[in-house]
Amino acid sequence: MKIFIDSGDIAEIKEAAAMGAIDGVTTNPSLLAKTGKPMRQVITEICQIVDGPISAEVLATDCDGIVSEGRQLAQLHPNVVVKVPLIVEGLKAVRVLASEGVKTNVTLCFSASQALLAAKAGATYISPFVGRLDDLSEDGMQLIEQICAIYSHYDFDTQVLVASVRHPIHVVQSALLGAHVATIPFKVIQQLAQHPMTEAGLKKFLEDSKKIPQG
Ligand code: E4P
Questions:
Q1: Cys bridge to 93: 8, 66, 168, 181, which one at CB 3.0-4.6 A?
Q2: Which atom of ligand 1 lies closest to the CA of 163?
Q3: For 116-135, how does the pLDDT look when each residue is reduced to its tens digit (9 = 90+)?
């Protein structure tokens, strides 16, 4: 499973890249607003750090506007993936962008039927939001299971990109279900590496190492 970092924070992205943990980056307007910098500047900076798919979200909500914004974003760098909301106008735009060879990430997916339509439209990635479903007492991972099953029955090329990840169990479950990608906040990437037994074991080894005779 590929791992993307879900962030617009350059320091976080650099640290995760240095860990060898990430294959790409996803952003959204809320994450970019936190940077206080213009969107295109942040996306261009990210493209210089990570050599993989970098999702940048359109703000238009009509087909022509999404297509036009998507074409402009795609020109920023060959790795840019245009993130499009899962609305009817978005699906129409995905179809046009796909016909032009522009990669798309269809975002704000909350149902299997939406994911089916995104694949039919030619989306490169579908982003089901598991954490936001869990917040509503719905099982986010069940949606991933459904989408993976549907896509595998029909050989769709669309990749399942698990989004709105909140904790390491989401990541492990995504991998077990065969999702293609999970996009993960930096804090959760750090949590993936941590285990109290590792820390306790290392502490003991370092303490014992002081008892080894110097030679
Ligand atoms: C990623 O593409 C999504 O924008 C992101 O994972 C949403 O996460 P959130 O529900 O924690 O805001």
A1: 66
A2: 6
A3: 999 999 999 999 999 999 99
